[in-house]
Amino acid sequence: MARARPPAVAGSFYPADPAELREQVSRLLAAAAAGPQPKAVIVPHAGYVYSGAVAASAFRRLEADRVVLLGPSHFFPLRGVALPGVQLFATPLGEVPVESPPDIPAQPAAHAEEHSLEVEVPFLQQALRQFTLVPLVVGDAAPEEVAAVIDRLWDGPRTVVVVSSDLSHYLPYQQAQLKDAATAREILALGRLDSDHACGAVPVNGLLAAARERGLRAELLDLRNSGDTAGDKKRVVGYGAFAFYEEARA
Fold this sequence. Notes:
Blueprint: E1 2-5, H1 18-31, E2 40-43, H2 48-59, E3 66-72, E4 81-82, E5 86-91, E6 94-97, H3 108-112, H4 115-118, H5 121-128, E7 132-138, H6 143-153, E8 159-164, E9 169-171, H7 173-188, H8 201-214, E10 217-225, H9 226-229, E11 236-245
Parallel strand pairs: 1-5, 2-8, 3-7, 3-8
Antiparallel strand pairs: 2-11, 4-7, 5-6, 9-11, 10-11
Helix pairs in contact: 1-2, 1-5, 6-8
């Protein structure tokens, strides 16, 4: 087993300089609204200039000692769910201890260049300080398969589930707004997404299946696209942040 999974997208999706990265993430978290602690969240995974503020709206609310992090496999053909096969997950902010459940296979190649998990870790490092990470890349799998993995790792209130996914891709601004609004309604209803609604539809659907089974309630925290943040409006990518609660708020 390799000791650490090194960062693959530092300097492109987010700053490679530790001080600059810490300042940017801290600023994004400080600008986000506080709120009740969720059991699970869905967050985007684009470059911070595009989706960082949306992601921060969910990360600001987290309190946990253990994070189960799931994201789609963008580049590697993968069946099921896979761990990185390392002891540590590294970013410019340091190394996070990795928990490797024995019943989940390791596939280092699926993690090597994957950004969907990596871009979330600096936010977790700033929001939580010390925690253990269960990093899972998700490939071709049925919602019930992913939900079963999430259920086995659910644990108590000090474990949080984070699912990484962007929404629509490369649509004109207004068309993207309509599509992402429909996707948000489906998530809030604990329904099921198609792959054209979200690049992380497979892990999202796993979380939604687990949420239905456990009676969780979903809340929309933010819904924007790159045309609202740092891109033009001709071809945008959609971003949403959602929180899931085990009990209704007072």
